[in-house]
Each structure stands twice: as C-alpha cells, then as structure tokens.
Amino acid sequence: MKLSNTPLYTASQIQQRVASLATQLSQDYQGREVVALIVLKGGLHFGSDLIRNLTIPVAVDFIRAKSYDGAASTGIVEFLIPPSLPLNGKHVVILEDILDTGLTARAILERVQADRPASVAICSLFDKPARRKVDLEGQYIGFELDDHFVVGYGMDYEEQYRELPDVYVLEPSD
Ligand code: 5GP
Ligand code: MG
Hints:
By secondary structure, this protein is an alpha/beta fold. About 20% of the residues lie in helices and about 30% in strands. The protein has three helices and nine strands; from the N terminus they run E-H-E-H-E-E-E-H-E-E-E-E. Strands 4-3-2-5-6-7 form a six-stranded mixed β-sheet. Strands 1-9-8 form a three-stranded antiparallel β-sheet, with no helix packed on it. Helix 1 crosses helix 2. The longest helix has 18 residues, at about 10-30. The chain is globular.
C-alpha cells in the first residue's frame, strides 16, 4: 500500500473545517458543563485542534476503544482506556476521527450513556455514511468521504502515518 500523490485534505483545509466545527459547538454548548471526550488514538490531532478553537470552557477526557472485527464484524468493543471523569449530568461531546461502520461509535455511546450524562453528541472529522452497519449518525461532521481508506492527521495504517499533517488516501502499490 502507498499514499496518494497529493493529499485528499491538506492541513489548512482541515484547520478551516475544524475551526468552523468549533464555532458551531461553542454556540450550541454555551453555558453548559461540557466534557470533550477524545477517542484515542485516531482522534489525537482532531480533538486537540478542536478544543483549542473552542470559545467556551470544557473539561477534557479520553477513551480508547479496541474493536474485534474479524470476518464477521461482531461489534464487540473493549475499552482499553475508559473515561476517567464522572460524566453524570454532563454534556458529553465525543470527538472521533472517522465514523465508518458505526460499531465503535455505538459501543462508545452505550458506554457513555451508562453514566447518565445530560446529553451526548458525536463530532467526527470524517464520515463514511455508505459503510454504516448500524443506525447511527454524527451530530457534527467535518467531511463526508466515499469508501476510501485514509491516513494522516492522527489516522493510521498499521500504526504508520499518524504524524502526517495532511490526510491521504491509502492506495494499492502497483
Ligand atoms: P467503525 O467501528 O465505525 O467501523 O470504525 C471506526 C474506526 O475504524 C475509526 O475510529 C478508525 O480507527 C477506523 N477506520 C475506519 N475507517 C478508516 C480509514 O479510512 N482510515 C483509518 N486510518 N482508520 C479507519
Ligand atoms: Mg485505527
């Protein structure tokens, strides 16, 4: 596999979109007690850039989910890092890299809802609606993607490419 010759989204395109998502969130969550829950590892850069653009105070926490998806995607998800803050009564905004099948996000949503937050929303930089296997929507979406596998800006292929500032499509090498 190799990277596309040119980025699918450049760092500056991403920064613009992230800033506008942050503006929207800052308006919608004005006056509320918010926990920004960054989903590791893919949400590393997105989460950190997004919270720096907010104009409202938030608490920050992390969650790390590991999904076991063999041939038949089971949707069984283990939490390698569970949230450390009490989410009860808080307005939780989940900050994710990509919504793909939706199985991981659904499991995270269920885990968060078990803590009885005041509200939960999903904010994902990328969304691949055509790949969805469960009925789940993000409330805040950066960009919709076709069925491409993308890397960079926190997103990996076998733990490579997370450090790249731009987002590339991973293509078969010829
Ligand atoms: P889902 O449970 O929605 O199928 O999977 C979501 C997770 O799969 C994402 O958080 C991400 O870690 C991984 N994933 C899905 N699509 C892509 C992609 O195009 N590129 C990368 N690097 N990871 C992806
Ligand atoms: Mg991954």
